[in-house]
Write a structure and sequence with these properties.
This protein has 331 residues and is α/β, with parallel strands linked by helices. Helices cover 38% and strands 19% of the residues. Helix 4 crosses helix 5 (133-153) and helix 7 (188-202) packs antiparallel against helix 9. The structure holds guanosine-5'-diphosphate. Guanosine-5'-diphosphate binds next to helix 2. Belongs to the GTR/RAG GTP-binding protein family.
Length: 331
């Protein structure tokens, strides 16, 4: 069934008109391409199944559709494509006239919803780096209103659309992707609870659980996320990966140089410490704390060890629903 397949392997589809930025997003988020290099990407003219499950904790595919899919084309098997879809990201170029894009969004959502009402519909209002703050707010309001009006006109008022302002030139695209991926993780609330327990027992201010390859955070504690902290943690991952690639022994960048021994500490000049600990081959925990809290590093490391075991339990339990829930003790 669709719910089973999306639970085993949550699948994200990336759709939108030609030149809206789909390939660029996939390359920047999952293949570490720098935003400027995307200027030379060839436009997509086929469905690209980009399976990144080997290197990433999050197992999903990017289906990069060519713009303006003709749903009545026999070659487009909507049934099988949308059945296995967990989230559908529709990319709209905010620097262009988006009337056609809104029509295409509507057709796509209407079609997909009828086949699989469980799909999460996510609208990326993209390339907002060219817009002023006022224009961003106005564009988001306008897209939101027109997209929802179209759905209501069609009797589809139950369909929920989520909207994000994104650009590949800053961290907004990673932030948006994080939110999309989190909705597809059944264990999210367990992870958040574990993070809450871990930080409150360790004197830590904020902690993010990262998918290292993509810099998507798959969970964080329940205190509010501030973009600056998130960017700091992303930058730290880049630094650690770069150092691992330069000095690590193995050749396989994604898998081996970042291993079970990896940890890293950065002290900033405002009495703040960034502390990175690897959780498993794909996941890392990045914490932000005051320098004086770090004096108790032994306690933090001990609590981290317990946290790490609990994480393994949470994901192992997945296929054994009869087991009791994980218990943790922290001192
Ligand atoms: P696709 O046909 O939807 O796959 O679109 P592409 O990924 O080929 O992107 C089309 C153009 O948009 C490229 O020249 C990209 O450099 C540019 N682009 C993509 N994302 C952004 C963005 O966030 N901001 C800006 N300013 N340009 C972008």
């Amino acid at each position: 069934t669709s719910s089973q397949s999306s639970e085993n392997k949550p699948c994200i589809h990336l759709m939108g008109l030609r030149r809206s930025g789909k390939s660029s997003i996939a390359k920047v988020v999952f293949h570490k391409m720098s935003p400027n290099e995307t200027l030379f990407l060839e436009s997509t003219n086929k469905i690209v199944k980009d399976d990144i499950s080997n290197s990433s904790f999050v197992r999903f595919q990017i289906w990069d559709f060519p713009g303006q899919v003709n749903f009545f084309d026999a070659a487009f098997d909507a049934e099988s494509i949308f059945k296995g879809c967990g989230a559908l990201i529709f990319v709209i170029d905010a620097q262009d006239d988006y009337t056609t894009a809104l029509e295409c969004l509507h057709d796509t959502v209407a079609r997909a919803y009828k086949i699989n009402p469980g799909i999460k519909f996510e609208v990326f209002i993209h390339k907002v780096d060219g817009l002023s703050d006022d224009q961003k707010i106005e564009t988001q309001r306008d897209v939101h209103q027109r997209a929802n009006d179209n759905l209501i006109d069609d009797g589809l008022e139950n369909v929920q659309l989520s909207f994000y302002l994104t650009s590949i030139y800053d961290h907004s695209i990673f932030e948006a992707f994080s939110k999309v991926v989190q909705k597809l993780i059944p264990q999210l609330s367990a992870l958040e609870n574990l993070l809450n327990i871990f930080i409150s027992n360790s004197g830590i201010e904020k902690a993010f659980l990262f998918d290292v390859v993509s810099k998507i955070y798959i969970a964080t504690d329940s205190s509010p996320v501030d973009m600056l902290s998130y960017e700091l943690c992303c930058d730290m991952i880049d630094v650690v990966i770069d150092i691992s690639c330069i000095y690590g022994a193995e050749e396989d960048i994604d898998a081996s140089t970042f291993d079970s021994q990896s940890s890293s500490l950065i002290k900033l000049n405002n009495a703040t410490v960034l502390y990175l600990k690897e959780v498993n081959r794909c996941l890392a925990l990045v914490c932000i704390l005051r320098e004086n809290s770090f004096e108790r590093q032994g306690l933090i490391d001990y609590n981290f060890h317990i946290f790490q075991q609990a994480i393994h339990q949470v994901f192992d339990l997945r296929n054994k629903p009869t087991n009791p829930g994980p218990t943790t003790t922290t001192s």
